[in-house]
Please model this.
Amino acid sequence: MSLDIRYYFEHPERFPIRGFLDGLSRTPDILDKAKTCLPGLLALPGVAGNFGETTSGDVRLYGDYHIGARTVIYNGVTVIGPVYIGEGCEIMPGALIRPYSIIGDGCAVGHGSELKRAVLYGGAKVASLAFVGDSVLGASARVGSGAVTANRKFDQANITLRLDGALRDLGDDYFGLVLGDSARIGANCVTQPGAHIGPYTWVLPTTSVRGFIPREKRVYAKTELTLEDGGMVELQS
Model:
């Protein structure tokens, strides 16, 4: 298996910026281009601005940004440009969108969640209190509440991924998760830096994963619960 974008993302038409994917072949190329492309895109006439709806005056918008029509930005949200947010999205209270993020049409970012250089194809959703950093989420992909996409190694070296028996350098010391179309990671999951999860694969709640996981799998860690007699203890107020 390779880093081929086409393996993970089968719906280029659901990427919000026309022509963005032209000439790209490897998954790291998407994050690289987000960093080089957004400033120029937002400098074009008529692109930058808030064309959506904010629900209160305590929304904080910094730098250059595009917020599409019918997108609702709720109270307490912070957007730090350059950022591109498509149409019909919901950015829930307290969310933080950091620079070089691209959010496709019809996406949702949950309460208190943080996106850092995250790229979301259309229909992707991030639930509450999650961290999605230096990651790409495919069309209709899902990240559960409290999930963390770890994006840096302890030794701060470049992120690597083992594919077909060889260790591939992803070319950056910050790299989180590639989550294919309609794939999902459940509540309180942790993905290790550089993880690549194929389309339609589900990682069940509280599971920690690393490396490459093929498409159409169900991933979970076997656990064993221990039950012991505890007696009846009244809890005091």
